[in-house]
Amino acid sequence: MSNGIILLDKPAGMSSTFAGTLCKRILGIKKIGHIGTLDPLATGVLPLAINAGTKIIPFINTSKKIYDFEMKFGIKTDTGDNTGEILTTNPLIPSLSDIERVIQNFIGEQYQKPHPFSAVKINGTPAYRMARRGESPELQSKLVNIFDICILSDLENGSLKLRAAVSPGTYIRSLAEDISHALGTFGHVTSLRRVMDGKFCVGDAITIDKLREKKDNIHDVLISFEDVLDDIPVFFVSEREADDLSLGRSVVCGVNRTLKPGIVLASSSRGFWGIVDRICDDEKYVLVPKRILVFGKKE
Asked: What is the separation, in whole angstroms, between the first and last Cα of the chain?
């Protein structure tokens, strides 16, 4: 059984859920889950957790995402991108110097309201479904962090390419509309590509066609547990301890004053892998299993 992470370069026009389902069908595997979500309009890196890899999703650090996007000034659409209907226009196209000045005001922590055509759920229903029915979903602003924004191109025919490094949950369509509003005009996103998601880079991602070619040699493109979780320290356990942990039992060990408490990636010589919470005090340390990843020998 293959377990780990595959980096997909998602094509435009496909939801993240459909992309995961398609890859699951291609690979003939039992479980798959995507880490983060990309709008159908968006392309770029979409990490897919395969089989037991789905267990490590909560422990993967994706605290920073980088997007390249193009926005067009002077036109407001209902979806915030070029797939929607035009709501209104404004002939004002800001100068490049004004744009450079204004985008600096968006760097840092701030409250942002999700776009009505987003996947945010309201009482279990995605906001975009409500918006498509003509309803006005009540969306609450939330704190996001925009680490950096830079301009990637000249302003041409009212269009401009930018790059934004942001925290999870930041909506680029909302950001583009907010920038346009601050410049006294309208704007919408015409293309969106995620080039980095945490440690995952789009340069390492593969297309769906390439995945089809590799389906019988999936280990060539599969990222292992230890590589994905390389920011979590590895802690070696005995075979007895591995047996107890694999059954969901906590393990009480003798004191070791050099150990620090926290999440560790437990490993044994026969190939056991598990995410474990190491709790330490003056008399002992306790290993509490959080996720059991692999039993037996490694593949």
From this structure: 8
Looking at the structure, tell me whether residues 153 and 54 fall in a common domain: no
Sign of CA dihedral 210, 212, 215, 217: negative
pLDDT in tens, 245-286: 999 999 998 776 677 889 999 999 888 889 999 998 777 889
Helical H segments across the chain, by residue range: 16-27, 96-103, 127-132, 172-182, 208-214, 225-228, 239-246
Domain count, the chain: 3
Contacts of 30 (CB under 8 A, 6+ apart): 51
E-strand ranges in the chain read 4-10, 32-34, 43-50, 65-73, 75-77, 86-89, 108-112, 121-122, 125-126, 142-151, 159-166, 187-197, 200-201, 234-236, 251-254, 262-267, 273-280, 284-294
Contact 207, 231 (CB under 8 A): no
Residue owning tokens 């759920």? 121
Residues 70 and 186 in one domain: yes
CA distance 130 to 122: 9
For residues 191 and 211, state if they share a domain: no
Task: Compute the distance between CA of residue 48 and CA of residue 32 in angstroms, rounded to an integer.
Answer: 7
Residue 39 known to be catalytic: yes
Q: Are residues 157 and 88 in the same domain?
A: yes
CA distance 35 to 15: 13
- Per the residue annotation, which of 9, 39, 178, 197 is the catalytic one? 39
Q: Establish if 79 belongs to a structural domain.
A: yes
Instruction: Name the DSSP class of 258.
Output: T
In contact, 4 and 35? CB cutoff 8 Å? no
User: By residue range, what is the domain housing residue 211?
Assistant: 4-59+199-228
Report residue 212 as tokens: 């089809």
Task: Check: pTM over 0.70? Answer yes or no.
Answer: yes
How many whole angstroms separate alpha carbon 128 and alpha carbon 206?
29
69 and 123 in a single domain? The answer is yes
- pLDDT at site 1: 57
